[in-house]
Design goal:
Strands 3-2-1-4-5-7-6 form a seven-stranded mixed β-sheet, sandwiched between helices. Helix 2 runs parallel beside helix 3, helix 4 runs parallel beside helix 5 and helix 5 runs parallel beside helix 6. With 202 residues, it is of the alpha/beta class. The radius of gyration is 16 Å and the shape is globular. The two termini are 32 Å apart.
């Protein structure tokens, strides 16, 4: 809620990278209905394999049991149920005849790249990362970077977490720990976020 309110005056979509059972997507959907029910351009796009991690931990991911192939898999076909759930949420808000979300199944490093290539006009106001592994986090950070508006929020569900060290490594290599202030919210101690200043260009 606190982070969503920071983008109310920013144009752009919300990317949820690592959907799992869709709790955050549904929360974004509800918050849009509360704070900006007529903002049809505030699309919410979720990316997930829905089959868990596609490989075991790689370089930079550590050896914790959490980073095993198949972890964080949902039940088979769950993405179809999530689609129906989000439609149900959307029907309770104005202009419900306009679909304002997408659930995209597959490897986010591939599907996000394709989505941005197919929709080059995309501006991103909020990118939420819970991919947990080094390689997909780094690749997706690099993909969203050119589409971020100044003042956009980039949040991480597990930053500076010993179980998933690859997230912090990816953040450092792409954006820089010393360059950005990592904020936290007292209501969600595991969540870290930065406000993108718009000046970083490769």
């Amino acid at each position: 809620d606190n982070l969503y309110k920071k983008i109310l005056d920013k144009h752009g979509v919300i990317c949820d990278l690592g959907v799992f059972y869709g709790r955050t997507m549904c929360l974004f959907e509800a918050l849009r209905g509360i704070y900006e029910p007529y903002n049809h351009s505030r699309k919410i796009i979720g990316f997930d394999t829905f089959e868990g991690f596609l490989s075991s931990s790689g370089e930079g991911d550590g050896k914790h049991d959490i980073v095993k192939k198949g972890n964080f898999a949902t039940i088979k076909g769950y993405e179809q149920y999530l689609e129906k759930l989000l439609i149900s949420h959307e029907k309770r808000s104005p202009i419900s005849h306009l679909k304002k979300f997408e659930v995209i199944k597959g490897d986010a490093t591939v599907t996000l790249k394709k989505y941005l290539e197919d929709n080059p006009e995309t501006i991103i106001a909020f990118a939420h990362f819970t991919l947990s592994l080094y390689e997909p986090t780094k690749k997706c950070l690099e993909l969203v970077l050119p589409h971020l508006t100044r003042g956009a929020i980039i949040s991480f569900g597990a930053i500076s977490n010993h179980a998933v060290p690859g997230v912090t490594r990816a953040f450092d290599e792409v954006l820089g720990i010393n360059r950005y202030m990592m904020h936290k919210d007292s209501n969600s101690p595991d969540l870290g976020y930065i406000v993108f200043d718009g000046e970083l260009r490769q």
